[in-house]
Write a structure and sequence with these properties.
By secondary structure, the chain is an all-alpha fold. The chain has one domain. It has ten helices and two strands. A two-stranded antiparallel sheet has the order 1-2. A hairpin with a 2-residue loop joins β1 and β2. The longest helix is centred in the N-terminal third of the chain and has 28 residues. 55% of the residues are buried.
């Protein structure tokens, strides 16, 4: 009983931190939720081969309400670029579904390595080059451009994150102001998390190794504890973000990713 009570407290605190980060960086909070859930599942003795799958799937489920809350808070500050959302949404969705299917086919250690590597690469850019010149004057158009949002959806789905990690970096390279990039990324979180969650539910439906209270790879217990906290905390993160400079916001985002990446590399090895 004490073990479950301790885990419940950890999940609630995780939800609060994830919610603030969702509003602050436009991420779904998954970059916090995934490593914490993975550690908690290990504590409960869940099979190592599916531990990361459950963490990723549950994280994606919690990102659905978090993204709605965060995107609404940013929209109230006119920081969501709906033109980009309209052009990219379908490709992000396709990538998210593909990513969920690929993730369900590999071992948890592979997912952990993918998560850690990509997070570290993004962190290096954000910390060392927070004010890098844009590659273009505006978000480009053309036949090859759909590859970008598809990749964002694919890797975000595999990592169990809302897309902000890659969307913010990509949009700023295309000369999108950091605050507007963060707000737009928050809405992409919904486009990624909803179909990806469904994909993880379907692919994990009859897996006998799953812990009690699971819907496919989604832990309903984890969702019930984390999701409400993230929704309540997301507006606070959005408020903090709009009170910070672009340079400071970029560097803080990168520093956080470094910490999360190093921890997952450690767990993977």
């Amino acid at each position: 009983m004490e073990q479950w009570l301790f885990l419940a407290v950890v999940m609630l605190l995780t939800g609060c931190v994830a919610g603030v980060l969702a509003g602050l960086f436009g991420i779904g909070g998954g970059i916090v939720i995934v490593p914490v859930l993975e550690a908690a599942l290990g504590f409960l003795g869940v099979d190592a081969a599916i531990r990361m799958h459950v963490a990723v799937a549950t994280s994606l489920a919690t990102i659905i309400p978090t993204s709605l809350s965060s995107a609404r808070a940013h929209h109230q500050r006119q920081s969501v670029d709906f033109e980009i959302v309209k052009r990219w949404a379908v490709f992000v969705l396709v990538g998210a579904l593909l990513g969920a299917w690929i993730a369900s086919q590999v071992h948890s250690r592979v997912l952990a390595m993918v998560f850690a590597t990509l997070a570290l690469l993004v962190a290096i850019k954000m910390v060392l080059m927070p004010e890098t010149r844009s590659l273009t004057e505006e978000v480009p158009r053309g036949p090859l451009v759909p590859v970008i949002p598809t990749a964002i959806g694919l890797f975000s789905s595999m990592m169990g994150i809302g897309g902000g990690t890659f969307s913010v970096m990509t949009l700023t390279l295309f000369n999108e102001p950091i605050h507007r990039a963060v707000g737009t990324a928050a809405l992409f979180g919904l486009v990624i998390s909803l179909p990806a969650t469904v994909g993880f539910v379907v692919t994990g439906w009859n897996d006998v190794r799953l812990p009690p209270g699971s819907l496919g790879y989604v832990s309903l217990v984890g969702f019930a504890l984390i999701a409400p906290a993230t929704v309540l905390a997301a507006p606070l993160g959005a408020k903090i973000a709009h009170g910070m400079s672009q340079k400071r916001l970029s560097m803080l985002f990168g520093a956080f990713l470094v910490i999360a990446s190093i921890r997952l590399f450690y767990r993977a090895f």
